[in-house]
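#dry-run=false #mode=assembly
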Amino acid sequence: GNSVTQMEGPVTLSEEAFLTINCTYTATGYPSLFWYVQYPGEGLQLLLKATKADDKGSNKGFEATYRKETTSFHLEKGSVQVSDSAVYFCALSDHREGGSEKLVFGKGTKLTVNP
Amino acid sequence: DSGVTQTPKHLITATGQRVTLRCSPRSGDLSVYWYQQSLDQGLQFLIQYYNGEERAKGNILERFSAQQFPDLHSELNLSSLELGDSALYFCASSVRLAASSYEQYFGPGTRLTVT
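#status=ok
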């Protein structure tokens, strides 16, 4: 079945540092890929997505590129802020599998950004 | 605010009891998904309903059941509760953007504590 593997962290950075959170996936078809963010005490928010190979998703300075050859969707940000402290989840869905868009999540990476 | 509402926000109950979690999707969204977030299992898909019909089932225990009503709100029923059922339960609804492009929006979650 489909699965997602992401670096578990925790990751601690200083403000304005460069961020990379690695995410790789296993899928039998051609899934859509997502990054969700969960701030303390809140639900999940969609951060960005990509629906096909070589697509780049971007939002709020974060970006990730769908790499089919390496089955990866790494999250990057050039300069993190304290407000980016949260847990980040990589996820995939393949609606062609059983006709459901259910999400398969990685285990999450906790990011702490210090001033 | 994602537009997905969940009640209650917190629930504390004893082992062996039964509880009902409620979810209202975003206006116009026909699909409702339930996910469980626990420390040991991470985020797991439980079940999906589409316009009142069950669409997909994940790692949902037989003690758990769900339904979606004609007004599209959904309820997740958990019975014979065990300590291990303590978790955050999220509801999500989805919007179809294109043939193979979907986005899921999550509610704030219900934190269930079984004592």
